[in-house]
Amino acid sequence: MLRNLLLTIGIVLATSLVVFPQTSGTLQGKVIDKDTKEELPFVNIVLEVGGSQVGGASSDINGKYVIKPIPPGKYDIRASFIGYNEMLIRGVQINANQTRFHDIEMASSAIGLEEVVIVDYKVPLIDKDKTVSGGTVTQEEIQKMPNRSVGAIAATIGGVFSRDGEAGNVRGARGDGTRYYIDGMPVIGSLAIPQSAIAQQSVILGGLPAQYGDATGGVIEVTTRGPSRIFGAGIELETSEFLDPFGYNRVGLNLNGPIFRKKTDDPNKKGQSLLGYFLGGDFTYRQDGRPMSGDMYRGTDEYISYLQGTPLVPSGLETGGTFVSGDYTRMSDLEKIKTTSNTSRYDINLIGKIDVRTGPTVNLTFGGSYSYNRGNNFNYGHSLFNYDKNALSYSQTWRVFGRFTQRFPNDPEKNSLIKNVYYSIQADYQSFLGSTHDPDHKKDVFKYGYIGSFNSHLARNYTLGSDTIDG
Q1: What is the pLDDT of residues 139-150, one digit of tens each?
Q2: 78: Cα within 13 Å, side-chain hemisphere
Q3: Nearest-CA neighbor of 398 among 357, 368, 361?
Q4: How far is 283 from 262, CA to CA, in rounded Å?
Q5: N or C: less crowded end of the chain, CB within 10 Å?
Q6: pLDDT at res. 287
């Protein structure tokens, strides 16, 4: 054991690593006798999700136990000990960068009958590990929200300024004073991820942990859902086609489950998942990419054709010259519209994770995400006559990462020098690419700024005047 640890430390020291914020939590507490209140040592404690083990520990001589690292989410705690009824505590919420304290009371099994005591977890009124200001939004709370984007979720926390339903600044700081993290990666590019992929989101306003640096505003950390040990799928359909003229449509998909399972001797029981996956995607189309609250107008097709054919009219003044035809626009030349013109936009957001369980204390996770959006930008100055020249913009962001985690749990049966310790090594890469350009010129840089050649057309211009001699 010591030789393996020294080898691991040597590899870490010989490799250039980047420290990343941990998006995991910790569960600890004490196991006691329900009647005598005495500590129970060597109790086997298992952390489960979907009926499959994701972590575990044994209580020490003083009845204390610690399980870490734990990805944020809801888990079941199963405690077993000879001479006591097995305990199952359901729905324990684990938050990122926090320690959840929970003591387990076990009842003695005086009668030799197998019995499992099942209780529901109750959230304590006082959080013992509340060392930072801010808030955490769980997956169950996110699913009940009408808008589940990263910015909209953050705006529900006090201290975050809301702008058009999305997060603006934090604690009055400038926009660049807020740092965003997704699965431990500092965000470069787009924040968009599938709505169904968000497992938990935390907003830290004060008392920032050391791993986040010196963010002047705050930290918004997103943890995405991980692979499941059981198969599951979901689909979401949203549309406003029959309710308003803005043409909002969204299709959300998610799929998770095991790929390979460990074989068992009992054919009626499924073995533990050794390789699991999670896939999520959002596809959104907006016919009106920039809805307006007030009345909107644009020129009629006939009037715009007139302006294009006759851009200038004689001034009629003694000094001569011309006026812009658009200066003589009347309300009868305009039509009232319900949506902005030429501002349609579509977005594609994809995410995936693969979890490889290489051993009881070793986890290997690979993941990535891709975001792409394309559409025409709204321009108020173009909205009357030149909406067909709205700039075309697009952007794409993709991220990939790999994380290796090894735990050294407390095992009273083994005489180990290292207990209740874990380490994680993560490597990630991100790329962002975006462009905004003229819808006709696009990427042809030689067309921009080129005026071209013109043919002059001269016409006599008569104006009303008076003779200087006889008036």
Answers
A1: 888 888 878 888
A2: 13
A3: 368
A4: 35
A5: C
A6: 93
